[in-house]
Structures are given as C-alpha cells and as structure tokens.
Design a protein that fits this description.
The protein is an alpha+beta fold. It has one domain (3-96): Cytidine Deaminase, domain 2 (3-Layer(aba) Sandwich). Helix content is 23%, strand content 28%. It is built from four helices and four strands, in the order αββααβαβ. A four-stranded mixed beta sheet has the order 2-1-3-4. The longest helix is centred in the middle third of the chain and has 8 residues, at 47-54. The protein is globular and about 35 Å long. The relative contact order is 0.22.
C-alpha cells in the first residue's frame, strides 16, 4: 500500500480489502494531504467509522474524509460520499468514485 500517491488513490487501492457487494473505503487526511488513518467496510461497520476509530483523536479536527466505492462483482466505481453521521467528526469531506 503506497500512501505517497495521496488520499484518493489510497482510498481506491483499499477497496479490495472491503467485503460486501459494494466495497467501500475511507481515508482521513490532514490539510497538507498527509494520511492520518484509513478503513474499510466490514459487516455493518462503515468505512468512515473504521477510519475514525483508528485515527488519533487529537489530529481529527480539520481533517478531510475521502471515500471510495465500487461494486464487487463488476468492479465499477459508484458515487461515494461520507455517511452524514460519521462525517460530523471531520470538518471537510470528499468522495472518490464518480
């Protein structure tokens, strides 16, 4: 896993680790684009929740959530955006997979 390509590419690379018919991943990054944490959808746990649980709580303020999604069978990207309930913990949000 290469974090040097930025949060969007990392979110796309992490999709393979997610389970379910629609694979989802989330990456938290700071205002300089440095990756703070990442997570994938597992069972009923949202990717954003997983990423936020792995992040240092002192660094989450002002962070950006980048979310990616795709269908597991066709591998087609789907429109993805952070879940509203999870996104409240980060100040800015962005989606990948349009």
């Amino acid at each position: 896993m290469d974090k040097s390509n930025g949060p969007r590419q990392l979110a796309l690379d992490l999709l393979a680790r997610s389970d379910g018919k629609v694979q989802m991943s989330a990456v938290l990054s700071d205002k300089h684009g440095r990756v703070l944490a990442w997570g994938g959808m597992a069972g009923t746990r949202h990717a954003e929740e997983h990423a936020l649980s792995r992040a240092n709580p002192r660094r989450v303020a002002g962070s950006t959530v980048t979310v990616a999604g795709r269908r597991a069978k066709s591998r087609n990207l789907v429109h993805a955006r952070p879940c509203e309930s999870q996104a409240r913990n980060a100040s800015r949000c962005s989606g990948s997979g349009e």
